[in-house]
Amino acid sequence: MRNSPQPPEESVLGAGLWPRILFMGAFVATVTLVVGVWARETGRPWQSMIFLVPGRPSSA
């Protein structure tokens, strides 16, 4: 509430939001794939782990 409102011409994804979205998407995808490959190589249920990793709640 301390910040002033954004100008009406500015996009919802303006003010540097696009790079953050792309970075976090790439990060989550990389972690998910690493966990999936690790699980498959160690004989764990890799499909379930790939499904669960992106939905894991963060500590933030």
Strand fraction band? Answer: under 5%
Low-pLDDT regions: none
The computed structural class is mainly alpha
Which whole number gives the mean pLDDT? 85
H/E order of the elements? HH
Radius of gyration: 18 Å
- The number of helical runs is 2
Q: Strand count, sense and closure of the main sheet?
A: none
Shape: elongated
What percent of the residues sit in helical stretches (DSSP H or I)? 40-55%
What's the end-to-end separation, in Å? Answer: 21 Å
Tell me how many strands there are.
0
Question: How does this model look, in words?
Answer:
The chain is 53% helix and 0% strand. It is mainly α. Helix 1 runs antiparallel to helix 2. The longest helix is centred in the middle third of the chain and has 25 residues, at 17-41. The protein is elongated. 0% of the residues are buried.
In short:
The protein is mainly α and 60 residues long. Helix content is 53%, strand content 0%.
Descriptors for this entry?
mainly alpha, 2 helices, 60 residues
Topology (SSEs and partners):
Elements: H1 17-41, H2 46-52
Helix pairs in contact: 1-2
